[in-house]
Amino acid sequence: MHQTHHDTVLRGHGYHPLRVKQVVKESDDASSFVLDIPAELRTTFDYSPGQFCTLRVRIGGEDHFRSYSMSSTPGIDPDLTVTVKRVAGGLVSNWLLDHVTQGSLVQTAKPAGVFCPRDGAHPVIAFCGGSGITPVMSIIKHELAASRRSITLFYANRDPGSVIFDGALGALGRAHPERLAVRHHFDIDHGFAAPGDVSALVGDQLGADFYICGPGPFMDIVESTLLGLGVAPHRIFIERFGVEGQGEDAAGASPGEPDAREAPESRPPAAITVILGGRSTTVAYRPGDTVLETARRGGLRPPFSCEAGNCATCMAFLKEGSVRMRANNALTPDEVAQGWILTCQSLPTGQAVTVEYEAM
């Protein structure tokens, strides 16, 4: 890859200061941030329904990275908008909601993610919990405008005051009564959503496309119930949140644990080279470690968040060599083809491996 193209790709995936045009209070504990995209960055910030942006926030002298889905829909909403819900003990979500106002600058990476609508005529059934409505809201608006598909939404919240986009969902339902059906579920009245709630909503619509987003236990219940009903796995699309903070709302395996099901790599490299902040560091490689683990063991502090392959915060450019990603729920095929990798999921497979993070 030519150096000039490589530099352009890195700059495009860097963090850009975007000004907040407006802050919209969506519920008791959530707000939307409407971002002003300058003309020179409009191509960089093109996005698809259901994608997210990663924000870099400096708190207490340290950079923190969190990914938030767009609630806006390209071609329908005039401005790119991300929605943030307050999380108990959540360092970044609370800071954003307490400190970011109209006119603030927010360091924002270009949109990413693969939780996007698939083409087809099948009905759409979505299961959301809490702020899991955010990417689904973008998808719903897209499908209502671009297709004739029927859409059913199951939306679980603690109580009526926690409902994000309540007014907007009501307006969409009134505008498309024959195509959009919304069922609200309040834990305070009915307890947490259970398999019976999922089965009752699905009925015999096993051929629908299913979109799931919300807290980990909620998504696990929905997914296992759908599979138990006989829904084909390729019809189930899941967006798993990044972690708001280490130990907060974490889902999945413990970070950094090698997957025992994977065969060890043959002839692993003796070392890998990591370029961070323009500085090159060569770190001895320990077989079974990911690129991210290797960089951190070498004393570097690269960006990361979920460590599960879901948020794209740890993405870096593979300048040399090859890697195998255990999981990828964030990068598009085009980004992978360009050379981007999720370092938290990447096991080196080449003898000489060099990765470069975007300029911090």
Question: Can you put this structure into words, describing what you see?
Answer:
The protein is of the alpha/beta class and 360 residues long. It has 3 domains: 14-109, Elongation Factor Tu (Ef-tu), domain 3; 124-239, Nucleotide-binding domain of ferredoxin-NADP reductase (FNR) module (Rossmann fold); 271-356, Beta-grasp domain (Ubiquitin-like (UB roll)), CATH 3.10.20.30. Helices cover 23% and strands 30% of the residues. The protein is built from 9 helices and 18 strands. The chain has helices spanning 3-12, 91-99, 133-146, 166-175, 187-190, 195-202, 216-229, 291-297, 333-338, and strands at residues 15-27, 30-36, 52-59, 62-69, 80-85, 105-109, 124-129, 151-157, 180-186, 209-213, 236-239, 271-276, 279-284, 315-320, 323-325, 340-342, 346-348, 353-356. It has a 6-stranded antiparallel sheet, with helices on one face. Strands 9-8-7-10-11 form a 5-stranded parallel sheet, sandwiched between helices. A hairpin with a 2-residue loop joins strand 12 and strand 13. Helix 6 (195-202) packs across helix 7.
